[in-house]
Structure formats: C-alpha cells, structure tokens
Amino acid sequence: MNTTLCENIDWVGYVDWTVRDFHGYSTDRGATYNAYLIRDDKTALIDTVKAPFAEQLLQNIAGLTDPAKVDYVVCNHAEPDHAGAMAKVMEALPNATLVCDKKCEAALGMHHDSSGWKTHIVATGDTLSLGKRTLEFIETPMVHWPESMFTYVPEEKLLFSMDAFGQHYATSQRFDDEVQLCTAMEEAKTYYANIIMPFSKMVAATLDRAAKLDIEMIAPSHGVVWRSHITEIVEAYGNWACCRPKPKVLVIYDTMWGATGEMAAAIHEGASQAGVTAELINVRTSNLTKIATEVLDAACVAFGSSTLNQDALPMASAVLTYLKGLKPVDKAALAFGSYGWSKGGAEAADEKMKAMKWEILREPIRAQYEPNAEVLTECRAAGKLLAAKAKEMASDRKAGGKLCVDP
Ligand code: FEO
User: Fold this and answer.
1) Measured from the CB, is residue 82 less than 6 Å from ligand 1?
2) What angle do CA 324, 328, 332 make, to 5 degrees?
3) What value does the mean pLDDT take over residues 222-248?
4) How far apart (Å, rounded) are the C-alpha atoms in residues 167 and 187?
5) Are both 213 and 267 inside the same structural domain?
6) Is ligand 1 within 6 A of the CB of residue 294?
C-alpha cells in the first residue's frame, strides 16, 4: 500500500474494514481514520484515530520515526473518531506539544484528562515552521464541529481538511487516482449528505476560504486523498452546499397493507413518463443513510405514509425526523397516504415537510383504505407535476457538477 503523499509526508492512519454502523450512518464500504506524519527538522502528527486503533497508529509512527522525535500533534477536530486516541498518543509521544485552536483545547479537555499535556493554541492565520515546511492554520467552525480546523502546508500545496471532502470508504488504496472515481465520489456525496449537510452555509464560507489557497492535494480525515480530481470534488461540494437540484423526483413511502405503496407506484409512474430521473424508495427496504444521500440533489420529493394511530408509520416518521435534522434546502414536495377511519399519515408528512420549509405543491393526496381509479389518476398527475417542477428547478439553478466521472 502506497502511503506516501510526498517526500516525508505519510499516511499513518487506520483502515476499518468491517465497520458498518458509524453512529447510525450505514458504512457499507467500511471507513478509514486518517492521520498523517510530516518529518522535517521538526516532526508533526496531523490528527489521530479512534481510540481502539491507537496502537496501530503508534506502530505506523514508530515504523517511520522514533516516537520521541515527534514534536507536535496537530488536532484539527476533537470528535472521537479523530481524537479518541489522543490520550494514548500524548502519553506515547513524550516530547510532543498538542497544537489546536482554543475551542478544540476545551473540547479535548472534556473528553480526556489533558492536564499534563503541553499545548500550543493557534488561530486562523497562525503558522508553525517545521523547517522546510510550514503549517498554516485555518479555523473552519461547524465543518464539522465548532472547534474544527484545516491545516495547510503551502510548500507542498497540501491541505489537511479533516472531515471536509472525506468519505467512509475502506480501501487498500490511499489516493483518488488509485480507485474508481465514481465510488470515491459516491462515498463523498453520502458523507456530505449525512454528516456535513446541516452545516452547508459554513461549507460555502469554507470553500471561499479554500479557493484562496493554492491546492494540489487534499488529505481528509476519512477515505482517499484527492490529488488528481480536486476540481471535481471541490465543484461537487459547491453543488452540494446549496443542494443544487437535479431533475430528479424521489417517491419515498412506507405502507401498511399496500395501499400507500400503490399510490407511490402511480406517482412514480407519472414522474417517470415525464422524462426525469424518478426513484421509488420504500423506507423499509432502504436506510436513512441512502435516503438522505438521494435527497441531497433531488429537486422534488413525494413522501407517503399509511396512517397508524393518527400519525405516520414509525419508519416514515424516523426518515422525516432524520431529514429535518440534516436541513436539506430548496425542495418541492407533496404528501400522500392511505387511512382507515381517521387521518394522520399523509398529514404528518405534509406538516414535517412544511417545517423543513420545502415548497409544498399541493394538498396531500389521500385514499381511504384503498386507492380507487380516480385517486390513482390523481397520483399519476401528481407525478407529472413533480417532474415538471423538477425540470424547472434544475434549469433555474443550472444543475451541474459531474458527480460520476470514471478515472
Ligand atoms: Fe470524522 Fe466529525 O468526525
């Protein structure tokens, strides 16, 4: 495995091949926790790994240098997947000074006993010379936590971007040009949708700051390092940060006895026949991670649920709650669903989509017990309405971004 980014800058992290659940995020392709070692007149470790993998990180460091020679441990992000091993690392690197911003110092102090650590606080614009290389620090609050920070090495045009531009993607390759670009972009999109999307306004500001840097390599804290497809990933982030819509309609539903499923199929049929990408998603055969990823760049959503106890079905409610937290913006939508003797399923979906400030195109479509021919005709017409709106939105916002480019 090639772990060298450039002369004396190496990846020393951990590949977690078997993880499939990252605090609820379905990691179908596993994950990596990236840490990097810069050896110069001074030696700096950039980030650590999840606590259980501290020993592997320390072995990787020891394979390159005497641990006593590590001068700095830069912490770009205090979340435990990157700083969980910090206590063991600080203990094993006896001459290391922790380098982080003020909020990160506070966050680390709440996760670990940091009382014995030497700490050097930095802020945006501060630099630290390692010899031939310099570390420049850029605070990036809320991408992903309040204390998050980028570290830039101008001599190598190398940006350590922490969670930003990351992917949950276990592979024995370390670089974007050693894997299928489609896969790396797909996982970057999934990561953006499920981790970064709530902070999209901050991402836009961060991208503006990053645009001022001369970058030839982006080394995130998860997944592969970008060195051959920086334009594609930065352009994709620009699109995702504004949820730039594609002419795409999602029909998302849960159904108790099949009636809402029939309505969903009719809406999907109407949208499909109108020349847009239309996807039919049963929440019980998909998962939250995949649904959020599809929502990211969809223009329109039809959301349906049967009624249970005057509310939506539990999985449908869970999806809506998850989406609300992720704050996808600029969607047009409508609700639908069946009911028996009291309404509630379609109404709950309608209310939750209104709460997300999505544009609601019409009142909910309802069917008592079973959809008759008239209701199914109404559903097909609603599919066409969604498709027309999706085309209009995609055209207005000039949807773009090559999200799937083979290397
Ligand atoms: Fe990969 Fe926000 O931690």
Assistant:
1) yes
2) 100
3) 94
4) 5
5) no
6) no
Measured torsion, CA atoms of residues 141, 143, 149, 155, in degrees rounded to the nearest 10: -130
pLDDT digits (tens, 9 = 90+) for 34-80: 999 999 999 999 999 999 999 999 999 999 999 999 999 999 999 99
Amino acid at 235: E
- The string of DSSP letters for 302-319 reads EEEE-EETTEE-HHHHHH
- Please give the residue range of the domain that contains residue 297: 246-399
Q: Please tell me if the CB atom of residue 163 comes closer than 6 angstroms to any atom of ligand 1.
A: yes
Read off the CATH number of the domain in which 218 is found: 3.60.15.10
Q: What is the CATH number of the domain that holds 391?
A: 3.40.50.360
Chain center to CA of 290? 11
What does the angle CA 180 – CA 184 – CA 189 come to, to the nearest 5 degrees? 145
Q: Are residues 360 and 222 in the same domain?
A: no
My answer on whether 263 and 207 are in the same domain is no
148 Cα nearest atom in ligand 1: 2
Q: pLDDT band for position 209 (50/70/90)?
A: confident
Q: Which residue do the tokens 């809320």 mark?
A: 142
Rounded to the nearest 5°, which phi and psi values hold at 248?
-140, 130
* 37 plus 163 within the same structural domain: yes
Are 30 and 175 within one domain?
yes
From 241, 257, 278, give the residue that closes a domain.
241
What atom in ligand 1 is closest to the CA of residue 221? 1
**What is the DSSP code string of 85-133?**
THHHHHHHSTT-EEEE-HHHHHHHHHHS--TT-EEEE--TT-EEE-SS-
Q: How many domains does the chain have?
A: 2
Q: Are strands 14-16 and 31-33 parallel, antiparallel or unpaired?
A: antiparallel
* 278-to-26, 264, 302, 338, 387 alpha-carbon distances in Å: 23, 11, 10, 22, 8
How many CA atoms lie within 13 Å of 12's alpha carbon, on the beta-carbon side? 28
From the CA of 11, how far away is ligand 1's center (Å)? Answer: 17
Domain finish residue from 241, 272, 306: 241
**At a CB cut-off of 8 Å and minimum separation 6, what does 30 contact?**
15, 16, 17, 18, 19, 20, 168, 169, 170
